[in-house]
Amino acid sequence: MASFLALILFILSTYYFEPSLGVRKLTSLYEPQPMSLKYHHGPLLQGQLPVHILWYGKFSSSQKSIISDFFLSLDRPARKHDQIVGPSVSQWWQTVLTYMKNAGNKNGIHVVLSKQQVDEDCSLGKLLKRTQLAELAHRVNSKHSGLTLVLTADDVAVEGFCMSGCGSHGSDPKTRSTFIWVGNSVSLCPGQCAWPFHQPIYGPQSAPLVAPNADVGVDGMVVNIAKLLANTVTNPFGNGYYQGEAGAPLEAASACTGMYGKGAYPGYAGELLIDSSSGASYNANGVNGRKYLLPALFDPSTSKCWTIV
């Protein structure tokens, strides 16, 4: 009787458990497909790109120069004592331009700082709806040329700010104009929008990095401006380069969120350069001796996230 029961148990174990072992083996052999940002054959930004800026709220002259110098650095190699130094903002920008070349765009993009306007009194108030961002963009760029940047100060709240994003990019299909909005989060949600220069709200609570331009809010803004700039020029009207659903796409920089240097993982920005005089962390040199932290980009040539250091 005992031997009969043992035989029954052996048959049952073979029938029920052997397939599950096969499933485990198949699962262990499965490797996810490499990520790929598909080009959907829509128009991309190209040629001379004038950038108009609206400073909404109070920004100091120092804060304005940090952001302006970033744009000036896109097409100019960083220099020190007349020697080109790297890694640089312009090198990072060249990776963005790879998307243009792959789409057959031989003209590239030449960014030019254009009209700047200040609205220190916050004429639409300090609690903005998303729909008002396009209205503000129109104020400084009524001719709908190039790219408009709407920057909100640290005491201005925007609908969805912090909860659903640190900035956004959009377009008007009728005028074929594009705009970017980014807010200064230092007083509202630095743990969400100024990381890694501020401790995150969630996750590992490691010490924050020293901001390269000694301004946590504005250095955080540069990170988000760079991210959205890369996304905008490669997917300006929603039918350029992206992966996933068009309404919630992974784009050139958003596909590599939170990565800044080699070895990055959630909660760790990666191996970065350190300024010996200030202790600040950075990964790119800019004009006028500036240093910046720039986000990783999805490299279409390798189908992997690329960090400049």
How is this structure best described in words?
This protein has 309 residues and is an alpha/beta fold. It has a domain at 46-189 and 215-256: Collagenase (Catalytic Domain) (3-Layer(aba) Sandwich), CATH 3.40.390. 29% of the residues lie in helices and 21% in strands. The protein is built from six helices and 17 strands. The chain has helices spanning 2-29, 61-73, 89-102, 130-140, 190-193, 216-234, and strands at 38-39, 47-56, 79-80, 83-84, 109-119, 127-128, 147-152, 157-158, 167-172, 177-183, 241-242, 273-274, 281-282, 284-285, 291-292, 297-299, 304-306. Strands 5-2-7-10-9 form a five-stranded mixed beta sheet, with helices on both faces. The chain has a two-stranded antiparallel sheet with strand order 1-11. A two-stranded antiparallel sheet has the order 3-4. Helix 2 runs parallel beside helix 6 (216-234). It starts with a helix and ends with a strand.
